[in-house]
Amino acid sequence: MNEIRRITRATILSRGRLRLRFNDGLEKAVDVTPLLTGTVFEPLKDPQYFALGRLDPVCGTVVWPNGADFAPEALYALRAEQEVAS
């Protein structure tokens, strides 16, 4: 049985980049700019607004004040910019 993906730690690195730790111990930096399409994600293209992202411990993902978020599975599937040892 597959474990449900959750983010347990999130850090905003820079415009469009996040460092994430998942509940299976994987930690990686990812660039989410390719996912920033559609009306809800438009504000995230502004670096100052992107910096407002926070971990929602209930949902287990990164969220922004306008309700934008990404499914943890989508973030998990992104190619890591830099792998970090668990």
Describe this structure in words.
The structure is a single chain. By secondary structure, the protein is mainly β. It has one domain (7-84): 2-Layer Sandwich (NE0471 N-terminal domain-like), CATH 3.30.2020. 12% of the residues lie in helices and 33% in strands. It is built from two helices and six strands; from the N terminus they run E-E-E-H-E-E-H-E. The strands form two sheets. Strands 1-2-3-6 form a four-stranded antiparallel β-sheet. The chain has a two-stranded antiparallel ribbon with strand order 4-5. It is globular, with a radius of gyration of 12 Å. The model has no long low-confidence stretch (mean pLDDT 91).
Short account of what is shown:
By secondary structure, the protein is mostly beta strands. Helix content is 12%, strand content 33%. The radius of gyration is 12 Å and the shape is globular.
The CATH superfamily label reads NE0471-like N-terminal domain
Tell me the span between the first and last alpha carbons: 22 Å
Number of helices: 2
Number of domains: 1
Mean pLDDT: 91
Relative helix content: 10-25%
Write the layout of secondary structure elements.
Layout: E1 7-14, E2 17-22, E3 27-31, H1 47-50, E4 54-56, E5 61-63, H2 72-77, E6 82-84
Antiparallel strand pairs: 1-2, 2-3, 3-6, 4-5
Which characteristics define this entry?
four-stranded antiparallel beta sheet; globular; mainly beta; NE0471 N-terminal domain-like; 2 helices; 86 residues
